[in-house]
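ok new one. same drill as before - structure tokens go in, u give me an amino acid for every spot. 555 of them this time. try not to just spam alanines like last time pls lmao
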């Protein structure tokens, strides 16, 4: 009997929700359809030169042109009514969307109740209070986030480095301090989620402004706000609390403004995954394309021997060499390493053609026949640690994830340490500070991915010759796929400084990229400035030296 009563109640509630949704849809259609009164108004609008009233030709014409019921007045009334109509339609659309979501949620709840009744578990009667309590707890937590954030009042900070700056934005632009890869202090939002975020904020602000407040605006003229009234906004995110938005709009008077503050609280942490990752049998095939530079390869093998052979022990090395010049020195270095530490996991491939980094990496990846190995595309002037190899393993997964680490690029040691005599060993130079190097966020050449993902994505564009370009093409292929691209700074991956030569044979775009990279690699902004002004600095120091008294001038 109880089960039948609950089923009947469930059916009635479902029918009632459907009727409410249909009624709102009908109301939306009636509101959006043109009214006959609007048509009558449009037919009744005075035309230029048409008489209004019975006051004669001249008086009628003046009334049509300048009176409150004249042409301009009617146009202003129509524009205002059209704006109200659009806002009303937007509000109705939102209400319908919310009702649809509520209907779907209730339908799922009702389906759960029906399933519970059919199983005879009796859990439906006690599940609802627990769900209501969880919802109330969540609402309480979100409101507490507003109190913790710096919205109504400031928080004592230990220093200027703890300050979280705001970004400012307008309808079309975002002005930012942390520029990242774009290098633009002002830009259009590139990511769709960022554009949608700011659009939602503006729409919410306009809806709030155009919603009458109970007695708050008494004595003020009612203005319909539109996006054109928006002047600017500022926003910042406190990563453990939420995002605050402050928006400024034009007011009713020339020196009056309306300001809104919105807050998007962050919810509590949610456990998404808890898994054990075993990397004991995950071998990495490090692929290095090379042309000449046998001395650099010896330095590379010194680090490889220590990190990959003695510390890690789960690495294979593939060297793809272009040309014949210095090939014997490279082969000798590999054979000596093999004899000294009993290392056999290496492959030397030779290509008698013009150097192409993309071509070399592609050949090295496809030459592997030992299953779906993890690939690390590397260069001869890269220094890495054993911790980085584990990071490479942990941030990749076949068919799901590829890893694009941001390496720390070393500045010219001669400029950092003053002269060659004061340059310490390489291991002591690898310090992550703003005066020793920079995060190479515009470089995409070092990457970890499984061989299957590399093959399925189409590999490199082997038609690109010489320096640069091939890594960006591959990176974009991964971005356009369904694979998750993990991009983060890596504290165990360094680019050692070396003099860069940009060949005259490079196409203009590649040459520009090469020269830009060369300029960024030399020194920090401040160090380059000191070099540029060194003559002024030397002249100043010379003036500051104490002047020796001239004996001839003694009396």
């Amino acid at each position: 009997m109880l089960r039948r009563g609950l089923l009947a109640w469930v059916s009635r509630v479902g029918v009632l929700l459907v009727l409410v949704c249909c009624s709102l849809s009908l109301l939306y259609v009636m509101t959006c359809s043109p009214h006959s009164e609007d048509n009558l108004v449009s037919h009744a609008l005075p035309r230029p030169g048409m008489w209004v009233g019975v006051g004669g030709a001249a008086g009628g014409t003046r009334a049509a042109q300048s009176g409150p019921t004249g042409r301009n007045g009617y146009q202003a009334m129509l524009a205002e009514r059209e704006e109200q109509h659009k806002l009303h339609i937007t509000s109705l659309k939102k209400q319908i969307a919310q009702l649809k979501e509520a209907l779907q949620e209730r339908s799922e709840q009702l389906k759960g109740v029906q399933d519970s009744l059919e199983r005879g578990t009796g859990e439906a009667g006690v599940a609802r209070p627990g769900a209501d309590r969880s919802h109330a707890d969540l609402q309480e937590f979100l409101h507490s986030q507003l109190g913790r954030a710096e919205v109504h009042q400031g928080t004592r900070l230990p220093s200027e480095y703890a300050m979280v700056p705001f970004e400012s934005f307008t309808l079309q632009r975002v002005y930012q301090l942390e520029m990242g890869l774009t290098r633009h202090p002002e830009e259009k939002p590139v990511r769709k989620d960022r554009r949608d975020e700011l659009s939602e904020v503006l729409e919410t602000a306009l809806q709030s402004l155009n919603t009458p407040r109970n007695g708050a605006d008494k004595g003020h003229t009612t203005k319909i706000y539109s996006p054109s009234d928006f002047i600017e906004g500022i926003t910042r995110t406190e990563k453990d609390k939420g995002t605050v938005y402050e928006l400024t709009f034009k007011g009713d008077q020339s020196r009056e403004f309306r300001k809104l503050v919105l807050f998007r609280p962050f919810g509590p942490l949610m456990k998404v995954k808890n898994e054990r990752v075993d990397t004991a049998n995950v071998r990495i095939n490090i692929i290095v394309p090379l042309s000449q530079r046998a001395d650099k390869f010896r330095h590379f093998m010194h680090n490889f021997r220590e990190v990959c052979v003695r510390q890690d022990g789960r690495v294979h090395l593939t060297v793809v060499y272009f040309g014949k010049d210095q090939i014997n020195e490279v082969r000798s270095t590999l054979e000596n390493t093999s004899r000294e530490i009993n290392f056999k996991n290496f492959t030397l491939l030779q290509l008698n053609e013009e150097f192409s980094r993309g071509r070399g990496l592609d050949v090295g990846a496809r030459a592997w026949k030992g299953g779906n190995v993890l690939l690390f595309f590397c260069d001869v002037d890269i220094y890495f640690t054993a911790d980085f190899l584990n990071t490479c393993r942990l941030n990749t997964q076949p068919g799901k994830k590829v890893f694009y680490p941001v390496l720390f690029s070393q500045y010219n040691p001669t400029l950092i340490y003053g002269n060659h005599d004061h340059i310490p060993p390489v291991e002591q130079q690898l310090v992550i500070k703003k005066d020793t190097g920079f995060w190479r966020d515009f470089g995409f050449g070092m990457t970890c991915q499984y061989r299957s993902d590399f093959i399925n994505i189409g590999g490199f564009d082997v038609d690109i010759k010489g320096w640069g370009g091939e890594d960006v093409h591959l990176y974009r292929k991964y971005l356009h796929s369904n694979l998750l691209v993990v991009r983060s700074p890596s504290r165990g991956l360094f680019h050692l400084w070396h003099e860069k030569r940009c060949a005259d044979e490079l196409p203009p775009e590649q040459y520009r990229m090469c020269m830009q990279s060369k300029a960024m690699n030399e020194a920090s902004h401040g160090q380059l400035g000191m070099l540029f002004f060194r003559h002024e600095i030397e002249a100043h120091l010379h003036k500051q030296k104490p002047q020796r008294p001239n004996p001839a001038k003694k009396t």
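The CA atoms of residues 170 and 232 lie 5 Å apart. and btw The longest strand covers residues 484-495.
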